[in-house]
Amino acid sequence: xxxxxxxxxxxxxxxxxxxxxxxxxxxxxxxxxxxxxxxxxxxxxxxxxxxxxxxxxxxxxxxxxxxxxxxxxxxxxxxxxxxxxxxxxxxxxxxxxxxxxxxxxxxxxxxxxxxxxxxxxxxxxxxxxxxxxxxxxxxxxxxxxxxxxxxxxxxxxxxxxxxxxxxxxxxxxxxxxxxxxxxxxxxxxxxxxxxxxxxxxxxxxxxxxxxxxxxxxxxxxxxxxxxxxxxxxxxxxxxxxxxxxxxxxxxxxxxxxxxxxxxxxxxxxxxxxxxxxxxxxxxxxxxxxxx
Length: 291
What we know:
Number of strands: 0
Distance between the termini: 28 Å
Mean pLDDT: 82
Order of helices and strands: HHHHHHHHHHH
Shape: globular
Radius of gyration: 19 Å
């Protein structure tokens, strides 16, 4: 397998893992099986346990005192907490639009500030993809967006964007991700202690705990370690662009798992999203071949 094809396969696996996180969170928190803060805490504990075990198994060390480690843990915690809190009120599609719209803006801005110079085709491709997402997710009629939930998802998007930007400098993706998760445990645990769930609020059921463990150990822990390994080869602007596939994958996965209807609007808008991404990523090669 060529390096380019391998990178494409690994990036696709990461995007599927990201989409799975949305579905698992929706099933657990949106389904009333567990509270948002509790889901975040169990998720990060499970991720830390899985990653630390893998690092220790291979005889590695946890770089807890590495430069920028505290910042990475803070960005990760903002994402985890904001993500779960937002999905108590937002529908999955609108939440995904807010999340990855903010991620896109954050990573493009961070890349430009850091010296990246995204070509015009990438800006056009990103714009087309965002238009497709808006068309895909925004209802045909008027909609009232819950302000607190939308703000929580925007914070999650900012946190994930900054976390991804930090990942471009990862020396050892597995160890770095394990250290981030381990330091994020007390950060995610503090809100649970400060704002414990009311006795008559959402109960923590075995289903919710199981979904949080899967989301933490597999789709988050292993998925984020893989993301840290491919991100340096993608760059900030491309990394932000490819993540716009996640809302489409999440919605399609939700329909397959939850029996939602596939509409012409979904097919057309998804084609616009994927077409914009393809244009932004591959236009240079197409143009070069004809010159």
